Fold this protein.
Amino acid sequence: ASTADPVPGVQSFLMSLSNDSMTNLQTESSLWWKSYWNMSSINLPQEPQIENYWYGAQYILGCSSRDGKVAPGLWGPWVTTDTAGWHGDYTLNYNFQAPFYGAYSSNRVQVALSQYKPILDYVPQGRINAKKFNCS
């Protein structure tokens, strides 16, 4: 693992971006979020805390998962150290699946798609383990 400070490299990259490329990134992001929020909504005037929780959970889901990107592990994309609990692994049980529970019922299936690749990638090893432990 590299111990080099990543900040100078990130700063250099950001300084190399043109105003047009920054504007394009902002436009692309705004369009994505507009589409995301237009997929579903709730209105619970008698339960504002539940409504706020729902919107917060949808926001976290949108921030942490995208089709074609790496699925969030146990800590989502917010690991702040090199020593995340459980090594930041996928546990391939409800801990891995839980972040996606709300994606289906809120019509945001596309953000749940990132969970399938790690599971499908594990199938060959799962077959080996099943044979090894006589579970086939």
Observations:
- Helices lie at 7-16, 19-37, 48-64, 94-97, 101-105, 116-132.
